[in-house]
Design goal:
With 327 residues, the chain is an alpha/beta fold. It is built from twelve helices and eleven strands. It has helices at residues 2-23, 39-54, 72-80, 113-120, 123-129, 173-181, 194-199, 210-215, 241-244, 249-284, 294-311, 314-324, and strands at 26-32, 59-64, 86-90, 137-143, 148-152, 166-169, 185-188, 205-208, 224-231, 235-240, 287-290. Strands 2-1-3-10-4 form a five-stranded mixed beta sheet, sandwiched between helices. The chain has a four-stranded mixed beta sheet with strand order 8-5-9-11. The longest helix has 36 residues, at 249-284. The structure holds beta-D-galactopyranuronic acid (GTR). Beta-D-galactopyranuronic acid binds at residues 40, 89-90, 145, 170, 191, 208-209, 212, 235.
């Protein structure tokens, strides 16, 4: 009788111990290079609060904004070694891990925002991003970054105006080669160093989207903004497989659901931010220049083909270009 009772207590203890990891609160770090006022910043907070709700408080996500844990390239390494659980960054920054991912940086490959989202949500793109998993990186969701435009000290109205300029780019060979085809030199510079680089004349201009010009105050150190929309390089949220694989299946599902919700939230938030921030920029810069995109497209047409080949990404690029015909 007593033996039986001990046996039952013993089994209950074992079951409780097995249940323990799921009950303990896991605190995870999320790094972003953006300010809390930038759509990436507040989408990170949205994600954190949804993870907490969906896991009934088992997982808390602490968001570190404004490069507190480093710039984009540091965040890639810290995700890989598991020091941080999540980061949102440009897919261009992942070309340091897997060069073929730089095909996302190719100029004018998307017909429109709708085409871009069609491609991002297509199973082929998820499959393409899976190549990162053996490198310790899991793509958990896309976070848009809109279209990129030039901002500079001198007006850029056509490719000839880019001749001889130094234009800041991310650490992306495709971006460097694209800028070269436009007659300028691409200067890879970290995000956190760009304001000073513009201020001190290390570069003459750069390229980015409306919300980033506002959040980083680049309008203070450049006067002209040229809406040529030469690239749509997606941002994405990645998770460290070292961290993710340690979560229970239920927790993993909750994280993935929160990430999917974050994309939906961000798509709307981004549209609003683009409209509001462009309106602000009109009052803050000397001129917002609308251009005929054709001369820019013609100048970089060969880059798309050549770079896709160099990177061994022709199939994927052809998929993007083919699907564009329907948009
Ligand atoms: C921002 C984007 C970042 C990064 C940054 C940059 O718009 O959200 O991921 O691409 O531009 O140019 O370094």
């Amino acid at each position: 009788m007593r033996k039986g009772l001990f046996g039952i207590i013993f089994i209950i203890c074992i079951l409780l111990t097995l249940a323990m990891p799921a009950l303990a609160v896991t605190a995870l770090k999320y790094a972003t290079i953006h300010e809390p006022t930038h759509p990436v910043g507040y989408t990170a907070e949205f994600f954190a609060s949804r993870v907490k709700e969906l896991t009934n408080g088992e997982i808390t996500v602490q968001v570190y904004h404004s490069r507190q844990l480093g710039d984009a390239r540091d965040n890639v390494e810290n995700v890989r070694n598991g020091t941080i659980a999540f980061t949102t960054l440009s897919v261009s920054n992942l070309s340091q891990v897997l060069p073929v991912l730089d095909v996302w940086s190719l100029p004018f490959i998307f017909k429109s925002d709708d085409h871009y989202w069609y491609v991002l949500n297509h199973p082929k793109s998820w499959e393409f991003m899976k190549q990162l998993e053996p490198k310790g990186i899991k793509t958990i969701t896309w976070i848009t970054s809109g279209a990129r435009n030039f901002f500079s000290k001198k007006p850029i109205r056509n490719p000839a105006d880019l001749k001889g300029l130094k234009i800041r780019v991310m650490a992306s060979p495709v971006m460097i080669n694209t800028i070269k085809a436009l007659g300028a030199s691409g200067v890879p510079t970290a995000w956190g160093e760009l304001y000073t680089a513009l201020q001190t004349g290390v570069v003459d201009g750069a390229e980015n989207n409306h919300p980033s010009l506002i959040s980083m105050k680049f309008y203070e150190v450049t006067k002209y903004y040229t809406l040529d929309e030469h690239m749509r390089i997606p941002d994405l949220t990645i998770a460290s497989t070292k961290v993710f694989d340690k979560l229970t299946k239920v927790q993993q599902q909750a994280v993935l659901q929160a990430a999917t919700e974050a994309t939906a939230y961000m798509r709307g938030a981004w549209k609003v931010a683009e409209v509001e921030d462009l309106a602000k920029l009109k009052g803050l810069m000397t001129e917002i220049i609308t251009v005929d995109k054709k001369p820019f497209q013609d100048a970089v047409a060969a880059v798309v083909k050549d770079e896709a080949k160099r990177l061994g990404g022709e199939d994927f690029v052809n998929f993007i270009l083919q699907t564009g015909k329907n948009f």
